[in-house]
Amino acid sequence: MKDLAENKRSPKAIENIEKTFRNNEGLARTLVGYIDKFYERLRKDFGDFKIMDFCGTHEWTITHYGLRSLMPEGLELVAGPGCPVCVTPSHYIEKAIQLAFEGIVVYTYGDVFRLPSLKAVKGASSLAEAKALGAEIKIVTGIGDAIADARAHGKESLFLGIGFETVASGYAKTLLSEILPNNLKLMSLVKLTPPAMLATVEILSKDDKLVNGIIAPGHVSTIIGAKAWKAVVDRHKIPLIVTGFEPIDVLIAIAEILKQTVKGEARVGIEYTRAVSWDGDLKAQEMIAKAFKVVEDGWRGIGFLPESGLRISESYKKFDAFEEFKIPDLSQKDLETDLPKGCKCAEIVIGKEKPTNCPFFMKKCKPSSPIGPCMVSLEGTCAIWARFGAGGLADRIAEDLKLR
Ligand code: SF4
Predict the structure, then answer these.
(1) 220 CA to middle of ligand 1, Å?
(2) 187 lines ligand 1 (CB under 6 A)
(3) Is there an atom of ligand 1 within 6 Å of 383 CB?
(4) What is the pTM of this model?
(5) Which is deepest, 33, 56, 60, 198, by most CB within 10 Å?
(6) 186 forms bridges with which residues in the sheet?
(7) Which residue is closest in CA terms to ligand 1's atom 5?
(8) What's the 58 CA to ligand 1 centre distance in angstroms?
């Protein structure tokens, strides 16, 4: 196996590997060597090889630790739609702002608080602006905080439940145990990730931008199990590895995807065995199935996807904010015009574009003044690249290696 230095990586890249993989430096060097070796065997047949990291937290690991700088030229890591804040349609934020101005107390997470809506409601283009204009909007870390606070004040309230399968089990437990006070309703905007992964790979294949392998979400898979990804692998015949969030986890997944491809295999693998099993958390799955119904849902930048969202089931509708406040459904038109003019989030969430190709990136659009949804959350690709990519360590190393 070649040493990294023999692979002509810059001293900065080597310095990076020493810093990033403090306790696993030897293993990291070995894995990068394997990645080089496997990709070399694939280069002739595949040319460029694209691996999608579906989850925003993996994109954070990859960008923050500069892992792209360790990839051989031609092996590209692209981000996917795994950021719930990025894919929540503006329609729902606008409705929450409107309800807040009508006197409903709105509870939300910190990143959703800053998410820009497409249309201004009574002069507010985000929940943060609505709060500045006098609406009662409270940032919480979870629905438990909202329950305690709503119980104490007794006013009509709404919890904006945005997230993927990981938050669904907590919401389900809350609904099944009926601990929500009468004055607090849940607006479930929970999205299911496997349909989005299928749709993303399909959209990219149609555009001839095939994804050759997938780094699948770790947290979500603790709930739904690795089995949930089998349909993607069966349909597209590409390797998929459920992966943890340390930089070494990501290197292992990349090496495994390449190894499977060299051997002509395409399987679901679990790298994150310390947290994920094939079947997942069956108890959580059972609670989710009781508390929610699966619906077609709209993904900002992608469109309507069948069976990709969770709304509160008939049995628990007394807790449902959609029922209580008569929140209208999202229309096709709402979704078609859901991003600010010029914003490339629609392409970025499916890995078709990079943030640095957006003309607004770090000019008009920054983490402190986001224009589009991908610049808000710590899981949004633009926000991650803004913090750790553009002009940061990852970019400097990539330039050094002449990767861009
Ligand atoms: S930089 Fe801003 S405007 Fe451009 S794609 Fe990202 S979020 Fe949208």
Answers:
(1) 26
(2) no
(3) no
(4) 0.90
(5) 56
(6) 159, 320
(7) 344
(8) 19
pLDDT digits (tens, 9 = 90+) for 19-50: 778 778 889 999 999 999 999 999 998 889 99
Q: How far is the CA of 76 from the centre of ligand 1 (A)?
A: 21
The Å distance, Cα 375 to ligand 1 centre, comes to 6
Q: From CA 195, how far away is CA 231, in angstroms rounded? A: 9
Give the C-alpha separation, 161 to 170, whole Å: 11
Any atom of ligand 1 within 6 Å of the Cβ of 116: no
- What's the pLDDT score for residue 395? 57
For 164-219, write each residue's pLDDT tens digit: 999 999 999 999 999 999 999 999 999 999 999 999 999 988 876 689 999 999 99
Gap between the terminal Cα atoms of the chain: 26
Mean pLDDT throughout 370-395? 83
Tell me phi and psi for residue 142, to 5 degrees.
Answer: -175, 175
- Which two tokens mark 285? 């799955």
| Average pLDDT score over residue span 336-356 | 93
Answer yes or no: is the C-beta of 374 below 6 A from any ligand 1 atom: yes
Cα–Cα distance, 136 to 181 (Å, whole number):
18
Residue type, position 126, single letter:
S
What is the strand order of the sheet 137-139 is part of? 137-139, 105-108, 157-163, 184-191, 303-312, 292-299
pLDDT digits (tens, 9 = 90+) for 69-78: 889 989 999 9
- Asked whether 348 lines ligand 1 (CB < 6 A), one says yes
Mean pLDDT of 2-18: 59
Query: Is 360 a pocket residue for ligand 1 (Cβ < 6 Å)?
Result: yes
For the cut 60, the answer to whether the pLDDT of residue 2 exceeds it is: no
Say if residues 231 and 203 touch (Cβ distance below 8 Å): no
| Residue 336 confidence (pLDDT) | 86
Angle of the 247-262 helix axis to the 56-64 helix axis, nearest 10:
100
pLDDT mean across residues, the chain: 91
CB of 344 sitting under 6 A from ligand 1 = yes
Residue 218 CA to ligand 1 center (angstroms) comes to 26
What is the 157 CA–ligand 1 centroid distance (Å)? 32
Distance in Å, CA 358 to ligand 1 centroid: 6
Give φ, ψ of 73 to 5 degrees.
-60, 130
